[in-house]
Write a structure and sequence with these properties.
The protein is α/β, with parallel strands linked by helices and 120 residues long. It is 33% helix and 21% strand. Strand 3, helix 3 and strand 4 form a beta-alpha-beta unit.
Length: 120
């Protein structure tokens, strides 16, 4: 299968966005871990085996996507972890280290697959 068991972290506070995306990625062969906010995502990437890529919403409670990026980059072993911003907001993401792409909601799933395949 295309995903070859690579781990992906999907971070979005909206279950109606997160769950269908998780299922689509799993059908492609990815192992998908989910988080509902930046704090949960930060705990997930700090585990022994971080994912190959983070798919990140920006506007979330407790810790936003922006705050997550800042906190994650404080850890040397996560400095190169690629982040794909998935948001309905404008394309203003370039100032955040590690952000490799921005996909607007509603998501073009084919583009999402292409970006993930490029980094995993």
């Amino acid at each position: 299968m295309e995903g070859d068991g690579h781990r992906v972290l999907l971070v979005d506070d909206e279950e109606e966005t997160r769950d269908p995306l998780r299922r689509l990625l799993e059908l492609k062969g990815y192992v998908v871990e989910t988080a509902a906010n930046g704090a949960e995502a930060l705990a997930a990437v700090q585990r022994a085996d971080p994912p190959c890529i983070v798919l990140l919403d920006l506007l979330m409670p407790w810790m936003s996507g922006w705050e997550f990026c800042v906190e994650m980059r404080k850890h040397d072993r996560l400095a190169d972890l690629p982040v794909v911003v998935i948001s309905g907001m404008s394309d203003r993401y370039g100032d955040f280290p590690g952000v490799v792409a921005h996909l607007r909601k509603p998501i073009d799933i084919q583009k999402l697959y292409e970006v993930i395949e490029a980094y995993c």
